[in-house]
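Input record (Table S2, row 302):
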Amino acid sequence: MSKLAYIYKQLNKRDFRVLLVLEKYLTQYEYVPIEIIEREARLPPPQLSMSLSKLSRLKIIKRRIGSLTGYRLTYLGYDCLAIRSLVERGVLAALGDRMGVGKESDVYVGLTPAEEKVIVKFLRIGRTSFRQTKRVRDYTRDRPEYGWLLQSKVAAEKEYKALDLLWKASAKVPRPIGRSRHVVVTSYLEGIELYRYKDPMDPEYMLKVILDTLRKAYLEVGIVHGDLSEYNVLVVIDEEKEVEEPYIIDWPQYVYREDPQSEYLLRRDVEYIIRFFNRKYRLKNIEVERALSYIRGEINEI
Ligand SMILES: Nc1ncnc2c1ncn2[C@@H]1O[C@H](COP(=O)(O)OP(=O)(O)O)[C@@H](O)[C@H]1O
Ligand SMILES: [Mg+2]
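Output record (adenosine-5'-diphosphate complex):
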């Protein structure tokens, strides 16, 4: 069992009452004053203090160092709230192993109540810089992490919305299944990252499917991915049809077509992926300008 699942299992109803109070005041306080927790958690004082020390020990909440007592959620606490909501809504039945630690996310496998294998992505905005600056102790000692929790939630909402619209436009992306707070649940793609994919049967077909996805995103959804690379493409092999289908993942940083940055980002995505196919698979017959025109709908064939 993962550490996260292990910790989640130790929490009871009272603990969640405390966590929900801290979440409610996330936008108002860096550390929620103890008086508010006492008032709103509605727990007998001995039980409240038991819960607070348990949650602190598990690093689910953090106590303020200083004169005024207060507590805030950590990422772990926010994770537990999200998991509980997904479980209660029947989205998630089990959380499995951690598959990977990305720049701005932790990705786990999970199971739905119908035993479908899913991906559970916990957004972790600000973690990279937090880790780097954490070494400089004085600078970050009282640095609020709560801003990042909310930013991660916004990023998850964004990613979910994009996946929903892309999926409805039949683009090759993971199917969105559910979301809570900073956590997105999608279908599990039994595939291999493009950067590890050595001998494709038909690289030209793959590149065209990727460009099709970018075109659907641009024309039908009105967005530009903005972080396209061989790390954000999963190749799924369809044994029956004997084709390799590339899926584009990792959408939270997209921008709208109307954004002043969108043309620059679209060009960067396209140049990058074409150069990758060129270098890695010796595919030379698709030009950047033509691909861009195709994505923008100026021509209908590539
Ligand atoms: N739907 C999925 N199916 C299978 N593996 C996935 C899926 N989504 C993500 N992954 C795996 O998790 C890794 C990180 O996910 P990603 O969405 O790219 O987040 P990050 O922002 O951390 O790069 C991916 O590179 C891939 O290996
Ligand atoms: Mg990624």
